[in-house]
Design brief:
By secondary structure, this protein is α+β, with helices and mostly antiparallel strands. The longest helix is centred in the middle third of the chain and has 15 residues, at 259-273. It starts with 6 loop residues before the first strand and ends in an 11-residue tail after the last strand.
């Protein structure tokens, strides 16, 4: 694509039954040959984003809606078009998929439904009603970047996680007589999920055309929207005027469990285009301090309401006091893009990047040490003690396995490729090189790694072992606990007995999947909750002062997999032991 002419971006989708998907793919690929982008076609319709010159897009849109080979399937389809500074895509991809948006619920479709779409103007009124719950139907990292005021974050990582959230909350919504108003970027997620939600008996409304249509329709959209809107292309994010912003990949993804992998992948896509505007958007992050990377926040386009940077920070992070920000600035822990320390008098500048180093007042010291089991150029395998978090979270920053290992090894690129609970001891695998990180994470995503855990729990003669537990786990109304729900199974664990006493047994647990708290929930569901579990079956209050005399008797004992880098069989085993005799 030539960059001498202005570049425009379009987004479009339609749910329509297609009989000859292969024929549609071939035709669309031909029509889009002068464009870049990503277009997905399935039996349920089409979903696409594309970029090109105005003339090329006009030709494509006319062909898609009028080509005789498509038999009018896409006639009258709406295209949302915006002008770009950055080339959004490096190439064209037209693919056949099972769904045009991966929802993962059998039988769910958007055909023949009565769901209610509301215009941007009506949406503004709907959000202010007391009987309405406003749901952000996007991923959590998108919500953190920008959202409608008072919207709720379902805390999902992928769209296929959204059904679990709805199933857990639908009874309360119906009991309280709440209507559900939801929105997404372009509308497709809402259209797919609203049809399914109606079948659950919910009163559902969706924003017509999504966030993009709201921005396009209402010049004063910033009255209702705060932050920026993430877009899945090289522009990264746009504001309410549909203009690209200075948001960086790190700001979007750094809090995600797989954030490093996402950033690496996105940067490879940026490199494939390499326009001057992309080079200008790349961030130069400050170095880590004591094993902790700097976090980043970007000021919005309009900063008049905050006289100084500290005023903005206090409003953005209402859980952090002004005194704490004064102290951080005094220690040069708040800096600008050039690495210069910011002071309480530093003025706000539109779209300015502010870096800050997280610290926790009176962070508890964990009096147990980790060990390194294995290390080569690609992997580091650590043996974690009980009570030590894997990565910085909440009141723990320095006292985490990741930070300790970074300080100990000097490897700033360390990143965990999976997680275990703070309460659980045992093996945790870290990737060292960002380019090869996804190859190891894929082992977990595709269930190609064997995991062996041990646990001490009650012995019951009325429960038959070995046992296979296979069910659907979803978050309960209390976010700390998972609960069993109807629907397709998403959690599977094999459980056998290694040894037993009169009242207790040491079990071997082999999880196939990796749902949150899966082993703890499955053992409690069998009536044999893991010893010293403060979450299952009964959620106990958080201890105000940490005690270490009753560790959760759960240990990540062994992992077995074929190393994707050298095809060697890897077997790593924790040296820690759970001793049945200590509890009998």
């Amino acid at each position: 694509m030539s960059h001498s002419e202005p570049i425009f971006h379009i987004a479009f989708y339609r749910f329509v039954r297609l009989d000859d998907v292969d024929g549609v793919v071939a035709c669309v690929r031909e029509l889009a040959s002068a464009l870049t982008g990503s277009i997905v076609i399935a039996e349920e319709g089409i979903n696409g984003v594309a970029a090109g010159t105005s003339d090329a897009l006009d030709s494509f849109e006319n062909g898609l809606t009028g080509d005789a080979r498509l038999r009018g399937a896409f006639g009258g389809m709406t295209f949302k078009r915006t002008r770009c500074t950055t080339a959004p895509f490096a190439r064209l991809k037209v693919a056949k998929k099972r769904e045009i948006v991966a929802f993962g619920v059998a039988g769910a479709d958007a055909f023949d439904t009565a769901h209610t779409t509301v215009s941007p103007q009506a949406w503004r009124e709907l959000m202010g009603r007391d009987d309405v719950v406003v749901i952000d139907n996007r991923n959590s990292f998108e919500y953190r970047l920008g959202k409608f005021k008072n919207a709720i974050d379902p805390k999902v990582t992928h769209f296929r996680d959204f059904p679990s959230y709805v199933e857990a909350n639908a009874p309360a919504w119906k009991r309280d007589g709440k209507k559900v108003a939801m929105y997404c970027t372009g509308g497709i997620r809402c259209e797919k999920s609203s049809a399914w939600m109606e079948r659950l008996g919910l009163d559902v409304y969706q924003l017509d055309g999504g966030i993009l249509n709201f921005f396009q329709t209402l010049p004063d959209a910033d009255k209702d929207w705060e932050g920026d809107c993430f877009v899945f292309d090289n522009r990264i994010a746009i504001n309410t005027q549909l203009q690209e912003t200075a948001v960086t990949l790190e700001q979007v993804y750094e809090a995600e469990p797989d954030g490093a992998w996402r950033i690496d992948r996105a940067k490879r896509l940026l490199d494939a285009v390499a326009t001057p505007s992309i080079v200008a958007k790349r961030s130069t992050r400050p170095p880590q301090r004591d094993g902790v990377a700097a976090s980043c926040v970007v000021l919005p386009s309009k900063v008049g309401q905050w006289p100084t940077v500290i005023d903005f920070l206090c409003e953005r992070f209402d859980g952090v006091s002004r005194t704490t920000w004064f102290d951080r600035m005094a220690r040069s822990e708040v800096i600008d893009e050039q690495g210069a320390a910011m002071t309480p008098a530093s003025a706000c500048k539109p779209q300015q990047k502010i870096y800050y180093y997280r610290s926790v007042e009176a962070e508890p010291t964990i009096p147990f040490e980790e060990t390194i089991v294995f290390q080569d150029e690609y992997l580091l395998v650590a043996d974690k003690p009980h009570f030590l978090p894997v990565a910085p979270v909440g009141r723990y920053v320095q006292e985490t396995l990741l930070t300790r290992l970074k300080r100990r090894t000097g490897i700033e690129t360390l990143s965990p490729i999976h997680r275990i609970d703070r309460d659980t001891a045992g093996l945790v695998i870290f990737a060292i090189q960002p380019p090869t990180r996804d190859a190891y994470q894929r082992l977990f995503r595709e269930h190609r790694i064997e995991k062996f855990y041990e646990a001490i729990a009650p012995w019951r003669v009325d429960v038959t072992f070995p046992a296979l537990v296979k069910n659907r786990l979803v978050e309960s109304p209390h976010f700390m606990q998972m609960q069993v729900s109807e629907g397709e199974a998403n959690a599977e664990t094999s459980i056998s007995v290694l040894e037993k006493s009169e009242s207790l047994a040491r079990y071997e647990l082999r999880p196939v999947t990796g749902q949150k708290h899966q082993l703890r929930a499955h053992m409690a569901g069998l009536g044999v909750p893991i010893l010293n579990d403060r979450i299952y079956p009964t959620l106990l209050p958080d201890e105000s002062v940490a005690t270490y005399d009753k560790p959760l008797q759960l240990l990540a004992k062994r992992v077995v997999f074929v190393d994707p880098m050298n095809r060697q069989m890897r077997v790593f085993e924790s040296t820690r032991q759970l001793r049945l005799a200590a509890w009998t």
